[in-house]
Specification:
- The chain has 413 residues and is α+β, with helices and mostly antiparallel strands.
- It has 3 domains: 172 residues, Cyclophilin (Beta Barrel), CATH 2.40.100.10; 32 residues; 105 residues, Alpha-Beta Plaits (2-Layer Sandwich), CATH 3.30.70.
- The chain has an 8-stranded antiparallel beta sheet with strand order 3-4-6-5-7-2-1-8.
- It catalyses: [protein]-peptidylproline (omega=180) = [protein]-peptidylproline (omega=0).
């Protein structure tokens, strides 16, 4: 009478001592039949000692016998069935060879033996005679000793649980001589989710697996962009972290200070219709900050200009072209309505923001009329101040001359 355990490390074939331990073997076989052990973890693996499983909670305190399971699954049963059953201790069955399968016997409160439920363990070493008389042997591993070697070499934590889950993926009953107990109902399919809430490395996950260099770089850039967006949202520069910059606006830098808006618009207009083109200038001085934003009507035109104009010589300066990362135009009340939509950033018509005199648009664009008025006011203030200062200087310079004339007249008298 045998059972095949398909684990994440390999297969194990267990021969059961059905004649010597009939009740223990019946309990084990029927639990296998109702998929009780499927996706259970080996939660206690001690090197050169044993590997323990059969607890759905993976804590060492869970599990029950098949008769308790049937009673708990039936809502019409009024009789009380104990959780554990009495272990079958046979002095002929000992833990002498590697691969011995035993039911874990739970200790009672008074220090005696409480009974067996569903938990079992497999020895990973020969001559574990200190387990004799304490736990009930009911089978032996006859195939898959190399799987036990892999199980013996897994990395574990302080609680002896493997850092990477080792699970029983499936159980196949090869021979079952016992009739089903009353009330036993086999589930239609095996469970697809582990019964415990494990936070360890999944049994089908490879922590050392490496992605292609291009894929790793892409993932790294995505994580860095998400972190930067969250930071900008926290400091208030973005309305929300999911906002995306427009795809039809180019950022051009390393410009010559003499390059004008009209020059850039003329150069870039050969790629498509330009909605706006602005060289950013200082508010106070009106000097070019040597970078600009160019908005195309179509994203395809912006992409073509990006590839064609990189490092092109403009006014004796090689410019640098990139897609704009600014979302200042979307950082307003209207952007709130775009949350959750695919077209999160819609095409903006910056030219509509300018009046017939060229004012408005970007906040950093210099306002020419205001600049003229400020210069006139500054010139008038400077003129009045310089007049008063010159009169003071003339008055101060005249005082010593009058003093000298007065002294000369006194001396003559």
């Amino acid at each position: 009478m045998s059972v095949l355990l398909e684990t994440s490390l390999g297969d194990l074939v267990i021969d059961l001592e059905t004649e010597t331990c009939p009740k223990t073997c019946e309990n084990f076989l029927k639990l296998c039949k109702v998929y009780y052990y499927n996706l259970n973890a080996f939660f206690n693996v001690q090197k050169d000692f044993l590997a323990q499983s059969g607890d759905p909670t993976a804590t060492g305190v869970g599990g029950e016998s098949i008769w308790s399971y049937i009673q708990s699954s039936s809502s019409n049963s009024s009789s009380s069935v104990p959780r554990f059953f009495t272990p079958e201790m046979n002095p002929k069955l000992k833990h002498t060879t590697k691969g011995t399968v035993s039911m874990a016997v739970a200790p009672a409160v008074d220090g005696g033996l409480s009974g067996c439920g569903s938990q079992f363990f497999i020895t990973l070493v020969d001559n574990a005679d200190y387990l004799d008389g304490i736990h009930a042997v009911f089978g032996h591993v006859v195939e898959g000793l190399e799987t036990l070697d892999k199980l013996n070499d897994v990395f574990v934590g302080r609680d002896f649980r493997p850092l990477k889950d080792v699970r029983i993926r499936h159980v196949e009953i090869l021979d079952d001589p016992f009739p089903d107990p009353p009330g036993l109902i086999r589930p239609p399919s095996s469970p697809i989710k582990p019964p415990d809430n494990s936070t360890r490395i999944a049994e089908d996950e490879d922590p050392l697996a490496t992605l292609p260099e291009e894929e790793e770089e892409r993932l790294r850039r995505e994580k860095a962009a998400a972190a930067s967006a969250l930071t900008l949202e926290m400091v208030g520069d973005l309305p929300f972290a999911n906002v995306r910059p427009p795809e039809n606006v180019l950022f051009v830098c390393k410009l010559n200070a003499v390059t004008r808006d009209e020059d850039l618009e003329l150069i870039f207009s050969r790629f498509g219709t330009i909605m706006s083109c602005h060289v950013i200038r200082d508010k106070k001085t009106g000097d070019s900050l040597q970078y600009a934003f160019i908005e195309f009507d179509r994203r395809e035109d912006a992409e073509q200009a990006y590839f064609k104009m990189q490092n092109v010589l403009v006014d004796d300066r090689r410019i640098w072209v990139d897609f704009s990362q600014s979302v200042a135009k979307t950082n307003n009340a209207e952007a709130v309505g775009l949350v959750g939509r695919d077209d999160l950033v819609q095409t903006k018509r910056y030219r509509d923001d300018f009046d017939e005199k060229g004012r408005g648009g970007y906040d950093m664009v210099f306002d020419v009329p205001d600049r003229d008025r400020r210069r006139k006011r500054s010139r008038s203030r400077d003129g009045r101040d310089s007049g008063r200062d010159s009169r003071r200087r003339r008055s101060r310079s005249a005082s010593p001359r009058r003093e000298r004339d007065r002294r000369r007249d006194d001396h003559r008298r």
